[in-house]
Specification:
Length: about 450
């Protein structure tokens, strides 16, 4: 292994071996290490049966929730390690899980049931990597290849279709052709997979190295789980501002975003409303008035259908809603205050990618955009007033100067904040207090007239 294996993991393998059983690191940790990626968890496969595992680690804390499928989780030095008995799977009648498993002491039997060759690598501290299905060669060639029949692998578990695309995005690999044909043939089985599992794979795909390329190569598969995007496919944009149709523009923009989940979901859906709002001039020029509102509705429907978190859904919806709004030097502080720095910079990522995916003469505006981002960073670094907490005056000071606690106090603080943000007032205690007292006097006069 290129990266140090934690001592508790090596200790677990050693204890299994000392009891007379085979034991290897298996799957993602071996694959990632081979690819030069630090593993984040460690799984062990073994010839020991579940009760034997429990006996070997009888003095340790164990979790047996996966025992029926051969998995015992052992906690060693606070590190959870999944130890799974070699097994052969029964039929997958639900297209996701085997009806039953049969334990075996044959490593090859266990590995041949796995999805892809790169995930069937095993490692032992004394013998190194054992590769029964050409996983290392496929990793070297950057190919995702099924073990055995691709059609059988995807029929057993349709989620493997999305896992293949997720790995393609994450590792910049290419899915082998026979696997692609099988994925297309079996793609409708994805409709039977729980939306939570689909969402998890899509989120990992979206934050990978090349989601746009995967979407471009496999649109029909992705439209199966993201059907509201399909109308964008080959939807023409005939105007001086665009060089690509809606789908190609979207993917070009997506390819220019950082691996931020909300930014990428927002970029993917920012123009999804265009096919539903298109109108044509007599010369064929297209317009998409109001597409932002429709795009927000479509992304909300998608996120809710996938049972994404409320926080992610809200953030993505806001980014889509504002992706076409004008932000300039004159209203920069207003937008920073309205959105908060984190959401503001996410929006600027979306707008930058969108801008660069337009026609070349439009994309040239990116220099102005980048200057605006730099200015925003300077405002924050210099302590610009963006929230009530940044005001040089607070509610306690106003109460000490004659204000009553209540709605008018809050309204006055927000009034002062708005004046500072819009440049009508300096963020200075004395000037803000004077403005507040003037407002209080006007309020008293109005109440007397009533």
């Amino acid at each position: 292994m290129r990266f140090p294996v934690p001592e508790p993991v090596l200790g677990a393998i050693g204890r299994l071996n000392s009891a007379g059983h085979e034991a290897y690191l298996v799957g993602g940790c071996v694959r990632d290490d081979y690819l030069g990626i630090p593993p984040h968890d460690y799984d062990i496969c073994t010839s020991a049966y579940p009760d034997e595992i429990l006996n070997i680690f009888s003095q340790e804390k164990t979790l047996t929730v996966g025992k029926a499928h051969g998995t015992i989780t052992v906690i060693l030095n606070s590190l959870p390690i999944e130890i799974t008995t070699y097994r052969a799977d029964g039929p997958y009648r639900d297209g996701r899980h085997p009806d039953y498993v049969s334990f075996t002491n044959n490593l090859a039997e266990d590995l041949k049931r796995r999805d892809f060759t790169m995930n069937a690598l095993v490692w032992h501290p004394k013998t190194g990597i054992k590769d029964l299905f050409g996983g290392r060669e496929d990793c070297d060639k950057q190919i995702i290849r099924c073990i055995g029949s691709p059609a059988k692998r995807f029929t057993e578990d349709a989620l493997r279709i999305l896992r293949a695309l997720r790995f393609a995005s994450t590792f910049s690999f290419t899915v082998e052709k026979t696997a692609v044909f099988a994925m297309l043939d079996k793609k409708d089985m994805l409709k039977n997979i729980s939306v939570e599992r689909v969402a998890l794979e899509l989120n990992k795909l979206m934050t990978g190295a090349r989601p746009a390329e995967v979407f471009s190569q496999h649109p029909r598969i992705l439209f199966t789980v993201l059907p509201l995007l399909e109308p964008s496919y080959h939807c023409a944009q005939r105007s001086v501002f665009h060089s690509y149709d809606v789908w190609e523009h979207t993917l070009r923009a997506l390819s220019l975003t950082p691996p931020d989940l909300a930014v990428r979901w927002a970029t993917l859906f920012h123009d999804s409303g265009k096919p539903h709002t298109v109108t044509y001039d007599p010369d064929g020029t297209t317009h998409f008035r109001g597409h932002q509102t429709v795009s927000v509705r479509l992304v909300r429907e998608t996120m809710q259908a996938l049972k994404q978190s409320n926080s992610l859904t809200k953030t993505v919806s806001l980014l889509v809603a504002h992706h076409d709004d004008r932000i300039g030097p004159d209203n920069l502080q207003v937008w920073l205050s309205k959105l908060g720095p984190d959401l503001f910079f996410k929006l600027m990522h979306v707008q930058r990618a969108d801008l660069l995916a337009h026609a070349p003469h439009v994309a040239k505006r990116v220099d102005s955009h980048d200057a605006l981002v730099k200015k925003a960073e300077e405002l924050i670094a210099n302590g610009a007033c963006l929230s009530l907490g940044d005001l040089a005056i607070d509610g306690k000071t106003l109460i000490e100067n004659g204000f009553d606690s209540g709605p008018f106090l809050g309204e006055t603080l927000n009034f002062l904040l708005e004046r500072v943000i819009n440049g009508f007032e300096q963020n200075d205690r004395q000037s803000l207090l004077a403005s507040a007292l003037k407002r209080l006097e006007e309020r008293k006069k109005q109440l007397k007239l009533q």
